[in-house]
Design goal:
The chain is α/β, with parallel strands linked by helices. The chain has 2 domains: 140 residues, 3-Layer(aba) Sandwich (Rossmann fold), CATH 3.40.50; 60 residues, DNA polymerase, domain 1 (Orthogonal Bundle), CATH 1.10.150. The chain contains 10 helices and 8 strands. The strands form 2 sheets. Strands 5-4-1-6-7-8 form a 6-stranded parallel β-sheet, sandwiched between helices. A two-stranded antiparallel ribbon has the order 2-3. Strand 6, helix 8 and strand 7 form a beta-alpha-beta unit. Helix 1 packs across helix 4. It is globular and about 55 Å long.
Length: 216
């Protein structure tokens, strides 16, 4: 069956639509080296992605280092953000299936909105999304309900008619705080068990599984 009741699907970016963890790790590595520190491990960086860079970076640097660390991180990400982008299994299939049925799709992320739009266009998916909203597009970030409400208002859909697809508790909270349904995939920073414990309404092994289940 198709999930025909939905007027919109909102997709998280990192760990849901794309694997961009290697590039993000390279930015933490670069900032650390510039400040004379040992870089964090790739796994530690991947584990902490999701809460937006200004939040996450505080897990790797002392408060006195934050300003310089953010400057180095941003400079490097500006240079390399179109590198190392891996579109995750089923992402194109699902987004195209949604678009073909006249259902709205959005990217809803704590990654910079500007960088996210660049990446989505580079993947040839821009025409399929009615909205791409990210960090710096508003004063808010996930899981603040204000950001969820703004996204729904811009899509012109009710929360009860929308599903947020993500890979982390941030996404589940961002959905539930305004009454959206939360679908999760364990393809990013959190395991299936963690997503169950965080209260996901439904968990699929991949975006391909969502496409094949709901849009056969």
């Amino acid at each position: 069956m198709t999930d025909s009741k939905n007027a919109a699907y909102l997709f998280d970016m990192d760990g849901t639509l794309v694997d961009h963890f290697e590039t993000i790790f390279r930015c933490y590595e670069y900032a650390s080296i510039q400040l004379g520190k040992a870089p964090p491990t790739y796994e530690r960086v991947k584990r902490n992605v999701g809460g937006s860079m200004p939040v996450t970076i505080r897990k790797f640097f002392d408060e006195s280092e934050i300003e310089d660390a953010m400057r180095h991180w941003n400079e490097h990400f500006d240079r390399i953000h179109l590198e190392g982008v891996i579109l995750l299994k089923g992402a194109r299939q699902l987004v195209e299936a949604i678009a073909s049925r006249g259902i709205k799709a959005a990217v809803f992320t704590n990654k910079s909105g500007e960088h996210t739009r660049n990446i989505i266009e580079s993947l040839g998916l821009g025409a399929h999304f009615s909205l791409v909203i990210g960090a710096e597009d508003t004063p808010y970030r996930k899981p603040q309900p204000e950001l969820s409400r703004i996204a729904l208002e811009r899509l012109e859909v009710d929360a009860s008619d929308a599903t947020l697809v993500g890979d982390s508790p941030f996404d589940i909270e961002s959905a539930h705080c305004v009454g959206m349904t939360s679908f999760c995939v364990p393809t990013g920073s959190h395991s299936e068990r963690e997503l169950v414990e965080a209260g996901a309404d439904r968990i699929f092994p991949s975006l391909q599984a969502i496409a094949e289940t709901l849009f056969p």
